[in-house]
Sequence to fold (494 residues):
Amino acid sequence: MSNVPADLKYTNSHEWIRNEGDGIVTIGITDHAQELLGDLVFVELPEVGASAETGSEIAVVESVKAASDVYSPLDGEVIEVNEALVDAPEQVNDSAYEDGWLLKLKLADAGALDALMNAEAYTAHAESEDH
Amino acid sequence: MDQKTILNESHRAMGARMVPFGGWDMPVNYGSQIEEHHAVRQDAGMFDVSHMLVIDIKGSDSTHFLRHLIANDVARLKESGKALYSCMLNEQGGVIDDLIVYYLDDTWFRMVVNAGTADKDLGWIIGQSSGFDIEVAPRRDLAMIAVQGPNAVAKTLPLLNDEIRDSAGTLKPFHATWDSSWFIGRTGYTGEDGFEIILPENDATDFWQQLADAGVRPCGLGSRDTLRLEAGMNLYGSDMDEETSPLEAGLKWTIALEPAERDFVGRQALEAKLAEGNLKTFVGLVLEGRGILRDHLPLFDGDKQIGEITSGGFSPTLERSIAYARVDADAPEQFEVEIRGKRLPVRKTKISFVRNGKACVDL
Fold:
């Protein structure tokens, strides 16, 4: 199984969420997701200021193989996007949890974070999908 | 349950990500599709293509039969070992499959057909063969390995036995040589020099390992697709199928209408389409900005839809998105693709984007 850091939260659709405090979270796709997609060649990011709804499309990552939607794990507002990915989408492959982050959200309800999956639950979910 | 080639365990041992393809369990990449692509453009890579089916046509009517069966004309093959690319058509002029046929002698031709269509092809070929003195022999006992890239020939030759090495070393492009068990064609699906090697299954695992030890990089179906897309080579099922005429898939050059008296399957339908006119054209596209062209995306000139993409993707060599498309004959030089509701500019190009490591379109 690929790398699943214990300090992050996760979704069924393979996004990771890092709590930055003050109701702000950073969002990316998991190492497992980038492995499934293969080499990324294009990332479409939202506008700063866009509003995000739980479960709605917030970004698109395209690998050589296919385009894949990224879903917002929570309600909030986009306050920053990783502009470096426009020229270097491969950062998502090389560093899914650090340089490959996609965007930051200011959450509508900071408490909603607690309801997301932890690393253990996500690992079990990803393994069940593989079989 | 997907079928496995004899090299299945070798792929897994080399770290392949396996996917289902045409009823087979095949490697899509061994880590990085883009690095595999570059290995073939710049050095040497190898592909397990044992899922494709070799069919031997033997007997005194072999030439006669193939001149009936396929749209290109095997009578053009005068030299033993020469290969020909052709479509096999249905009576409506649609493409049942595309294939390579090698002429060995007047009583023996060897065809290689696609994996996903192999059973259908075999049924069709046998169905067409009544009244001809031929034998149709599917060769599931053979494996096939494509070694491709500017250094492919140099890295492969030392691994061959003495007798076939000499004849393989002097092969002209699109020719093959063989001994009692191995068959080597200077052919491929990447736009680079190299060999396609048909060999007994029992020899395949060792040979694959020897190639790897000689510095030939294992490559999956992912890079095979981006390489063929750059090279301007059609993919059956995407660029043409049973509903599509080769005339609208950039394959008119493979239809031998001369001599006029050769009555191959699909000829009447093609002649009717040519007489009727109003055929779509098959073009290359380059996306002007960022984004990825994908299969089936619609193309627009103003408000009017003028066609769609048949196969598209990212070109690792050009670092741009490229595609093939079927569009109205009067399509302008530039028009638009619609991706996720947004219109982006595309430009028409010739179909061949990269050959022998070099870009052949202006960006």
About this structure: The radius of gyration of chain B is 21 Å. Residues 8-49+140-231 of chain B form a domain with the Gyrase A; domain 2 fold (CATH 3.30.1360.120).
